[in-house]
Amino acid sequence: MDLKVFPKHTGVWEGTYKRINPDGSLRDAWKCRLSVRFEGANKYHQVNEYMWDDGHYECLDFGVCAFNDKGELIFDNPRILGKAWETQNSIVLHWSYKDRPGSKLYEIIDLIGPKEEHRIRVWKWSQNDEFQGLTMIDERKVKTVEEIDPAFWANLPNTRTNGQASRSDK
Q1: In this predicted model, what pLDDT tens digit does every residue of 75-118 receive, in sequence order?
Q2: Which of 132, 131, 129, 120 is nearest to 169 (CA)?
Q3: Entry pTM
């Protein structure tokens, strides 16, 4: 498999999420830290840490996901079902939340800047074919994948908050 865009997204990214209502008003905002690595040639592991100003913290582990023969990354974990794929310079995702029948999210991820260490993402939300708003994400790469402390991955079972309803899904 000749992936060109996904490998550029490994490492640690920090930034902000802003959830926007359909009328353009701010619904919620929080800080984020995403850690991304490849395991072997065709497996991808992503962990999202979310921090709100009121002290609330979540650590969502998307598990180790595999690419299929078409180069699509398949997400099928207790939280979401969907897939991601490369376009010329972007990653496109389409998924739904398993606990929300009728939910559909569409995301585009782009790297910008001369070193491609600035990442911009937009989610478009729908529920039962009704527009629910956007999530705008602005992130900067703060570590390469080689700089991630191996203890982060080893301690993950004690840190992750999977199983709880995520505030980020509201």
Answers
A1: 998 889 999 999 999 999 999 999 999 999 999 999 999 999 99
A2: 132
A3: 0.94
Q: What are the distances in angstroms from CA 1 to CA 38, 72, 98, 117, 167?
A: 13, 10, 29, 24, 36
**Residues 36 and 11: beta-carbon distance below 8 Å:** yes
Provide the residue ranges of all domains of the chain, joining segments of one domain with +: 6-162
Helix (H) or strand (E) run with residue 34 in it:
strand 26-39
Q: CATH fold of 6-162, please?
A: Lipocalin (2.40.128)
